[in-house]
Model the fold of this input.
Amino acid sequence: MDLYTPPIADIRFNLEVFGYEQDVASLPAFADFDLETAMSLLEEYSKYCVEVLHPLNKSGDTTGVRFDPADSSVTMPEGFKEAYAGYCENGFGSIPWNAEHGGMGAPFALSTLASEVMIACNKAFSMCPGLTAGLIDALEAYGTPAQKEVYLSKLISGEWSGTMCLTEPQCGTDLGLVSTVATPVGDHFELTGTKIWITFGEHDLTENIVHLVLARLPDAPRGIKGISAFLVPKFLEDGSRNPVFCGGTDHKMGIHASPTCVINLEGAKGWLVGEPHKGMRSMFVMMNAARLNVGIEGVALAEAAYQASLKFAKDRRQSRALDAKKQDREHAADNILVHPDVRRMLLDVKSTTEGLRGLVAWIALNYDVMHHSTDEAVQQKAEDLVALLTPIIKSFGSERGFFNVSTAMQVMGGAGYTADWPVEHYLRDVRIAMIYEGTNHIQALDLVGRKLMMGGGRLMRVFAGEITDLIKSCADDARMAPFVEPLKAESKRLNATTMEMGGMASADHEVMGAVASAYLNQFALVTLAYVWARQAKAVIDRPEDDPQRRSKLQLARYYMELVLPEAAMYAQKVKAGKGAVVDIDVDLL
Amino acid sequence: MDLYTPPIADIRFNLEVFGYEQDVASLPAFADFDLETAMSLLEEYSKYCVEVLHPLNKSGDTTGVRFDPADSSVTMPEGFKEAYAGYCENGFGSIPWNAEHGGMGAPFALSTLASEVMIACNKAFSMCPGLTAGLIDALEAYGTPAQKEVYLSKLISGEWSGTMCLTEPQCGTDLGLVSTVATPVGDHFELTGTKIWITFGEHDLTENIVHLVLARLPDAPRGIKGISAFLVPKFLEDGSRNPVFCGGTDHKMGIHASPTCVINLEGAKGWLVGEPHKGMRSMFVMMNAARLNVGIEGVALAEAAYQASLKFAKDRRQSRALDAKKQDREHAADNILVHPDVRRMLLDVKSTTEGLRGLVAWIALNYDVMHHSTDEAVQQKAEDLVALLTPIIKSFGSERGFFNVSTAMQVMGGAGYTADWPVEHYLRDVRIAMIYEGTNHIQALDLVGRKLMMGGGRLMRVFAGEITDLIKSCADDARMAPFVEPLKAESKRLNATTMEMGGMASADHEVMGAVASAYLNQFALVTLAYVWARQAKAVIDRPEDDPQRRSKLQLARYYMELVLPEAAMYAQKVKAGKGAVVDIDVDLL
Done:
């Protein structure tokens, strides 16, 4: 049964709505990537994901990875090695990198939206190219010319893969506690320490694995300002084995085919990336694109779960329509799509998933503008939107993604809970997205504690300006009122919440911690209302029977009437401040 | 590491608050069960769960059950057989049944609250006695004296176990579609058909398994009014094998140690229970207590997950307190309990879990009153509360339970996602509770379509009367205002929503379907506010430094300020009516 079809049409729609041709393809860097070219690359990529990666998803989950303590090797499930080789041969790992080291030089937005399809087809597999991409980003930003020469083309081609070695047993969120030591020895360093939760830290897909390791120089200041970043390859240039070994793999609720490794550095040779004690910069370069991708995980698995549940619903007959006129007397029961609650669940998932996809497209396109525009004002505005909305995509995308997969399971009843359908697998796989690459609350603190403060509130003004411009542009169109009026009301409420929170938090930092998660959700709901209003505006002038117009308008209406009301609830939770949260006796918990 | 301690003190507290001694132990039937006797039985029971069932929980999940197609047998994971035997030897399966067939004759409330502990220790195991209990209920209500004689003592002792065979491949929610046929042959019937998702349909814990099977007599009317119930034992009285065979077990996201079976009836001998075509009555008797128990699954696993996450939090140090005065300069980082968002998550779980436990206690006690009171008015009121609030316990208990286990996982970060901690297991196990024993939306339809209508709205008036009485009794106590005022405001809003929904739905049944799930959640949130106000009132006169007083008041405050605001959001969703949900083109989904 064909349970997943890549949402190519909706990706294209969003590229169009959020300005692919005007804002990105028009940049000199992307002269070769008009929309049609971009779309044919996306189709080719999607075809590979569906035909090669998707069939390995269930077997990979069932088999999992195999760690052998005898030689500290990790064997991937059957078929992954060949699938990875084919992925690289097709150049799919090289899409967004510039041509100097063998990249295709396509827009980041394209590879980002494409990654949804790979994740939906095989999330565990997708994490290998995902981590490699982070390392490439870090090297492009901070690598020496010699490092770029040695590593970039191998990483971009996929011959080698990359990792991000941050966490240690005593430090996850708080990287200031890193205790891995890097001792200078001649032209290099020797690293000693233990890293945990290293995704694809060991595997048999590539001939070499390049770790980016956070560690501390002997003279390092304490805390976060004493962290440096090092390149630590599994095999050195002379072919000898560097003493960086996998000490085991974790047993997890999901992503069984993604090896999560303990990595022991036993005097492993490493080379500094960037300046001493400035390792967090490399980390953040790796992390920023990764955070977008984690948000996409929620979109991808919710879409895949939605499609499975919709197929189930189309076949399933149970009970009678509540409206007698809709009853199908040729069958003993009606198709469950007649039941309002089944529609409600499907619309809940679809409206938030398509809203999030639009948000990802908007921000990914701004990412390209931020990197390639030569107009300083345009560049700055793009950077502001990326900075402001990345934590929202990561956090809301992953949380809503988890709820959405669960809702899709609910549509299917008991069938959804069994392994006969893929949804239980998706639910297990998607849950980690709320945790890694900075937990969702860390995203909320980033939003409230950093992004809202930057440039004296400039980012929020840029965002509010976008909303105001959209509202103004629809002022004379009564057809847009059902979408614009709720957006107006809720963005006004968001501004009030922001002011109120600012007032409370400036006198008391604990308030910020207590309300940040609720505030992020309120912000996210308003952002999706903006995205839905943009999508609605993009179709409103089409003929009334245009299917995409009808589909987008019915989803936009659902979003405004039945999802957006959640924003006021979060506003209420922000208003409650810190009292009931903080002024407690923890010994009574 | 000792990760779970049964919440005995909170169970006792709720038995006291909700009238165990005045309303239940005072009934002649329970003369032998004063509170101290009840509590010592509960402690003995809990000890067995913790010492014997808990250690089998993880291994049972990892091993799962083994189906052998050669002889259609199902082998339980190691240790389950011995644990089950010990459970029966201690008489733990016999607690609430009357002495005539070997029961202990204790209040139902006691066995119900005790079951939380068994579920927390080993949910998969708990399903075997759980299903047996349903069958005992059905037989006590509708069995012939001869059937009671043959079956009841064996089921109550646990020598035999019971099942509930309802679902077939083409019918789950809609039991009117049952097609299993029962043909009369002499003094019995021969049943032919296939049943799916039969919990403990086959296993090696007991010498016999007794199925309660819904089937259709040859002359049965179509639909739900043509369903009869039959007793179909695996082994007949002469020891011969009845042709009712397990055809396989399902692979599921969780409850791996609970066999979910396909059951093939191949001309199996069966005996009618109750009247022909009235099988749904037996089914509902089985189902009602089962629905309470499913709500408890959410409470049990949320409590267990909460305790694990709290233990993790107490040991974990990451980052610095936002309030400099709270920073612990003797360590490189502060304990994560200083972080407001960690407190928020823990309070979210604890306040809703303890609120739900109180609700379960209240309704379970009313269950005993309904069955044993001789005062007709008292009996009727108890019956009304049980009928009204059972769907709320099942639905809100299971949904919030799922969210709560997920929130506990979030407290633990990556650790919670690994199998090194039990929370990922709990999350997989608890998810099914939203689906079985009637999906959560079926509960909502039961609430809105049946319970609100009964006796011209009598049930709702009884419930509103309880709230009004409580509010009045607190009128002169300013200390109670922070709990009573929000309850007052939200119960007023609930009444308005109920009226408004009634107005919309009476003209259009589809509205009911569209809004029922949101309405149930609004109702549940107000109900928990009532429970919290009751709990607060119960401790308010104690000395200010009494730990239980302080704990209950800080949780009640959290609930009122940070959970109850969700009620207004659901009211808003009800207000939206059916338009955006129903008036869509499903072909565009």
